[in-house]
Specification:
about 220 residues; Rossmann fold; two-stranded antiparallel ribbon; alpha/beta; single chain; six-stranded mixed beta sheet
């Protein structure tokens, strides 16, 4: 997203949060949309000393559990996450509990590391990022109430496909494997995100093709 547009978004978020002790921002989008990178950029531009990123990916079920449930080939689908644990974490954050330990997903090790990051009571801006924050399916549809402001990163599907294939290649897999994995699992997850989307406060058009900017969603 172009810097000028992003700075405008930052200004609006700061204005909306003036009267709040804590402000939760949901950054949603399909796999490969760049949510983690964008969330970190947002954190740095808001208040680096009073902003934290909370990734949904830390709530992946472990591969052992997924194997037991026959879900390992669908890792990354909504049913492969600990929704209840994630929802409880958001409630704890909303309730200003001190020193909240959160799990963070390690892509290289392909597992979640418990207690890998701490969210302190004094942190004002909480940037929550994940695929299914705005998924309009039970039980995920209940997450929207936790966010003061929500964004959706909108990337052309063809570009998502390229990014996702490159992700697997970067992890050491062949082009053939990457294409098969994306077609079998990643793109169905993309389709699920797009087909059951609760309208965000803001759509962000994010593409390497030059189609950058943002447009109003539900209430901006």
């Amino acid at each position: 997203m172009e810097t000028l547009g992003l700075l405008k978004v930052i200004g609006e978020l700061r204005e909306r949060a003036v009267q709040k002790q804590r402000y939760l921002i949901g950054v949603a989008g399909p796999p490969g949309a760049g949510k983690s990178t964008f969330a970190e950029e947002l954190r740095l531009l808001l208040e680096p000393d009073s902003a934290a990123v909370v990734p949904m990916d830390g709530f992946h079920f472990d591969n052992i559990i997924l194997k037991q449930r026959g879900l390992l080939p669908r890792k990354g689908a909504p049913e492969t996450f600990d929704y209840r644990g994630f929802e409880i974490l958001l409630r704890r954050i909303r309730n200003f509990e001190p020193d909240i330990a959160i799990p963070v997903f390690d892509r290289e090790a392909d597992l979640a590391r418990a207690g890998a990051r701490i969210v302190d009571r004094d942190v004002k801006f909480i940037i929550v990022e994940g695929n299914y924050l705005l998924l309009d399916e039970a039980p995920w549809s209940g997450l929207a109430e936790y966010f003061d402001f929500s964004m959706f990163l909108d990337v052309p599907k063809a570009e998502l496909k390229e990014r996702l294939e490159q992700r697997w290649i970067t992890h050491g897999f062949s082009q053939e494997y990457a294409e098969a994995r994306v077609a079998r699992n990643d793109l169905p997850n993309v389709d699920r995100v797009l087909s059951a989307l609760k309208p965000p406060d803001l759509f962000l058009s994010c593409s390497t093709s030059g189609e950058q900017g943002f447009r109003a969603g539900r209430c901006c």
